[in-house]
Structures are given as C-alpha cells and as structure tokens.
Amino acid sequence: MTNSTTPDADRTAQAPPARPDLTGMRLSHRAILGDIDRLAALLRAPEASRVPPARAGAIATYVHRYDAAVRHHHRNEDDRLWPVVADEVGGAVDLSRYVGDHHALDRLQDAVDETAARYAEHPARHARPLAALLAEQRDLLVEHVGAEERHLFPVILRRVSAARYAAAEAEIHRSTPPELGAWLRPWLWRYATADERRLLSPASAIQPLLAVYTAHEKLAFGPVG
To answer: How high is the pLDDT of residue 92?
Structure first.
C-alpha cells in the first residue's frame, strides 16, 4: 500500500506540541526580585534616614507602585493561571503552597505600604523599620519565586496546553488597569533583554512611559544606568 502522506505532513504529525511560553513569567520574576533587592539596599543605607522630603516621597511612592505590581502578579496567578494549571495537571502539583505564600506576602506588603507612608513624612524615624520589612519581603519573595521556577515551571512546560496558557495571559493583559499598566510596562522594560523588549511593545510606544518611569526612578534611587 502506498503511503499517501507527504513528507511535510509527516513532519507536522511528528512535531511535539508547542509548550507554554513562560517568557512573561520569567521577566516578571526577574523584575520582582531585582527591584526588591534595590529597595532593600536603598533603605538599608545610612543616608536613607537623611533624604530630603521630595526624595522620601518618591521612595515611598515607588514602594507603593512596586507592591501594587507584585500583588497584581500574584492575583493573576491565583485567579487566572493556577486554575488552568490545576485543570490540566490534576493532582500532579499542589498549588496551595503558592497561594499560601501570596496571602502571607499580601499581609507583609500591607505593613510595608503603611511604613512607607510614614517614611515619607518622617524618614529619620521610619527608615530602619521600613528597611527591616523590605528585607523580610525580599527573603520571602526569593524563596517563593525560586520554588515556583524549580518545581512548578517544569510541570507547566510538560503538562499544560500552550493555547490555554496563552489565553490566560491574554486575559491578564486585557484586564490590567490602564494606570497600573502605564507603570508596569516601563518597569518590565527595564529588566527585559533585547529579545524580550521586542515582545513587550514597540520602542516608540514605550518611550513616553519610560521617560516618566525613569524620572521617578532617578529621584527615588539616585542616578541609574
């Protein structure tokens, strides 16, 4: 009997299914860990208690926006990504640990935001308490992100439908509030590789947002590269 399939059809039939693209997740993690390191170091420095009012306010505002970005990331995991993972892999992974981490981080971030607001009013009095809370937040985030990438990412890549994962990510993008998105996009751009930047947004579209973000970043952190 003659095989009626073409070589191209054979290659298509034998090709492995596409895997979920975790580029966005990895970039978000890089930005989350990179910025918590910067914030913890900034507040740990002795001069953090002696900054002028304008810079103290900029630092506090940056902390608030960073925490909003982290909450947004975690809520989207809990509400949109993890249900897809649970449906696809069944009992192959226990997601309760990651959800529990998010709740613990929410409570800690509430304390961070409250202390940052006080820091804006009285840097000398509140620099050390804020530094201690940011260091605690950093340690929890490092452990949490490391666990996700070591234990959960391999399961997602092996077992989750690329199409369903992409649909969940698309819904996240559609539901992001415009004000938060205006900060998130240049924030992620700062930590993105050249290839990742091509996926994020055209350079012409990001430049106005990047200018605003960079001005705030310089006031909060000092001159940056």
So the answer is: 83
CA dist 165 and 151 (Å) reads 17
Contact 69, 184 (CB under 8 A): yes
| Structural domains of the chain sorted by starting position, each given as residue range(s) with its CATH number in brackets | 22-177 (1.20.120.520)
Task: For residue 169, give the nearest of 28, 66, 30, 24 by alpha carbon.
Answer: 24
> Burial, 14: exposed, middle or buried (Cβ in 10 Å; 0-12, 13-18, 19+)?
exposed
Residue 9: predicted pLDDT? 41
CA distance 75 to 149: 17
Pairwise CA distance, residues 192 & 209, whole Å: 15
Residue 129 carries which side chain, given as an amino acid letter? P
State pLDDT tens for residues 181-212.
999 999 999 999 999 998 887 778 899 999 99
- Say how many C-beta atoms besides its own lie within 10 A of residue 189's C-beta: 20
Distance CA 142, CA 165 (A): 24
